[in-house]
Design a protein that fits this description.
- The chain has four helices and no strands.
- The chain has about 55 residues and is an all-alpha fold.
- It has one domain.
- Helix 3 packs across helix 4.
- About 5% of the residues are buried.
- The mean pLDDT is about 75.
Length: about 55
């Protein structure tokens, strides 16, 4: 079975959007969306999508 590059990277790195989810969970408890986005180098939309994905699990 062939993987696309994003699928391969996500299985190898265990990251979503190139973000370490453990670090995201630590920041989520005490920082707002803007601070999280700046700290991790992602957009506000990606922060919101990560929060939705975490709440679903």
């Amino acid at each position: 079975m062939r993987y696309t590059e994003k699928q391969w990277n996500s299985t190898q790195n265990k990251d979503v959007f190139g973000v370490n989810l453990h670090r995201f969970m630590e920041l989520e408890n005490h920082a707002n969306h803007m601070e999280i986005a700046q700290e991790l180098g992602i957009s506000l939309g990606e922060v919101k999508m990560l929060k939705k994905k975490i709440n679903r699990t």
